[in-house]
Design goal:
With about 450 residues, the chain is α/β, with parallel strands linked by helices. It has one domain: 3-Layer(aba) Sandwich (Alkaline Phosphatase, subunit A), CATH 3.40.720. It contains 14 helices and 19 strands. The strands form 5 sheets. Strands 1, 2, 5, 6, 7, 8, 11, 12 and 13 form a 9-stranded mixed β-sheet that branches. It has a 4-stranded antiparallel β-sheet with strand order 16-17-18-19, with helices on one face. It has a two-stranded antiparallel ribbon with strand order 3-4. Strand 17 and strand 18 form a beta hairpin. The radius of gyration is 21 Å and the shape is globular.
């Protein structure tokens, strides 16, 4: 059976409910077991926009199973990634710091040579190491070759498998090989599963595609499913018109359904996951011409940086939502808080919940999102509950948006409201000074030819 997500010309590649019931092993001499420490599941889905999920108000039921899990937890309606592509955002996810403080921001091409992204510095404490110090066994399966073990993403995991750009079915199959080992383990477990499916190429997944785009021809389906570069897909869109864009989005939605279905199957095959505390999120979103582009990693608009996030508490029956502004850097401290641990001082995120439930900031909170991938000019964005300021470093040009009145970021208010733009810029400059610089990382090394082709096919290099 073929599990790879087809890429032409390329070798194809997780309010705690009564946490007081859990005793903290660091405060007692009793053994660390599943009874006194909760097991944890972190699920991340590559390239998943929040507004394409039913529990964020989307018209299509793209994720019924994830909706069920969300209904048992807290859904964060203002969650943001730290960047608009995988490498910096996932590094932030596991290290709890912004890209400017971890320094892992690239993975592209220069002067006809492809360079590896830098390894995550060992000086940066990460989530699996912190959990393992508490007595957790740690497991991960990631379906994105950027997240290879030797680039630092496997540090702290007892078992780590980066399977390349494969489908959800292959992620499950790989993880389930460890099922017996996990179930026989007496202590708590931390599991991280990173799915890839909504990423381009957008495969036509049935039966969902037929529900969303019943008039699509076999030829149209094949064309969209076979294109793995946003630039090429844009050319097809320009040539064939708006109908293609509608079909592209239907394909994308069907991919979400496909991934959701396999997450459901995983829970069916591994029933004990129902007892795990779950954090669900994405690394970034995806743009469908809202600001003139397809794909991601080219700007910091909400299409590509606003992400889904929920914390699921077993046994809770009604949906609870939070409008707090939250970030991917909050995931690690949140999971560590659930485990009863204390976050390292260097982490820049905050626990979203503790033993007593949801933690809301006392003052308005701002978060950052950044891009410095060597493909587009470096950009930063400051995001609060009402306002968002995007800043281009080289030109010092700014874009100001009122997210309450203009959530799709169509009306740049920099000229109309210069005082508000200056205020937001001052807040950014003050806050950014509190962030330590990134430690020195291992220098880039050339990638093998097949890795170069793989990155090009995914649109990360040209």
């Amino acid at each position: 059976m073929e599990y790879r997500k087809t890429i032409p010309r390329v070798a194809v590649l997780l309010l705690i409910c009564s946490l007081a019931a859990f005793s903290h092993a660091s405060e007692t001499k009793s053994p660390v077991t599943k009874k006194n420490y909760p097991s944890l599941l972190l699920i991340t889905v590559d390239t998943l926009r929040a507004d394409r999920l039913p529990f964020y108000g989307y018209k299509r039921n793209t994720a019924p199973f994830l909706g069920k899990l969300a209904g048992e937890g807290i859904v964060f309606t203002n969650a943001y990634s730290t960047s608009s592509w995988t490498v910096p955002s996932v590094t932030s996810l596991i290290t709890g710091v912004y890209p400017s403080s971890h320094g892992i921001t690239r993975g592209s091409i220069k002067k006809a040579h492809v360079y590896r992204q830098e390894r995550i510095p060992r000086k940066l404490p990460n989530l699996p190491e912190q959990l393992r110090a508490l007595g957790y066994r740690t497991y991960a399966v990631t379906a994105n070759t950027h997240l290879m073990k030797d680039l630092g993403f496997g540090r702290g995991f007892d078992r780590y498998a980066c399977i390349g750009f494969y489908t959800a079915e292959k992620v499950n199959q790989t993880f389930l090989k460890w099922k017996q080992e996990i179930e026989s383990h007496n202590g708590p477990v931390f599991i991280w599963l990173h799915y890839f499916d909504p990423h381009i190429p957008y495969m036509g997944r049935q039966p969902w595609l037929n529900q969303y785009q019943s008039d699509e021809t076999e030829g149209e389906c094949t064309t969209i499913s076979s294109v793995s570069r946003p630039v090429k897909l844009s050319r097809i869109l320009q040539k064939k018109g708006p109908r293609i864009l509608t079909q592209i989005q239907s394909h994308y939605d069907s991919e979400i359904n496909y991934c959701d279905e396999h997450i459901k199957k995983l829970f069916q095959e591994f029933p004990s996951l129902e007892k795990y505390a779950v954090v669900f999120t994405a690394d970034h979103g995806e743009e469908f011409m809202e600001h003139g582009k397809l794909g991601h990693g080219r700007n910091l608009y909400n299409d590509t940086v606003r992400i889904p996030m929920f914390v699921r508490i077993p046994g809770k029956t009604s949906i609870t939502t939070s409008k707090d502004v939250v970030s991917l850097i909050d995931v690690a401290p949140t999971l560590l808080a659930i485990a009863g641990g204390k976050a390292p001082q260097s982490w820049q995120g905050r626990a979203l919940i503790d033993q007593k439930g949801l933690i809301s900031p006392k003052e308005e909170r701002y978060v950052f999102t950044q891009i410095n991938n060597g493909i587009v000019p470096p950009m930063n964005a400051l995001i609060g509950s009402n306002w968002k300021l995007i800043m281009k470093e080289k030109t010092q040009t700014k874009e100001l948006y009122n997210l309450m009145n203009d959530p799709t970021e169509r009306n740049n208010l920099t000229t109309a409201q210069p005082e508000k733009a200056k205020q937001q810029n001052d807040i950014f400059q003050k806050l950014v000074l509190t962030l330590p610089p990134a430690p020195k990382a291992t220098k880039n090394k050339p990638l093998q030819k097949d890795k170069e082709e793989m990155l090009r096919s995914l649109g990360y290099i040209q």
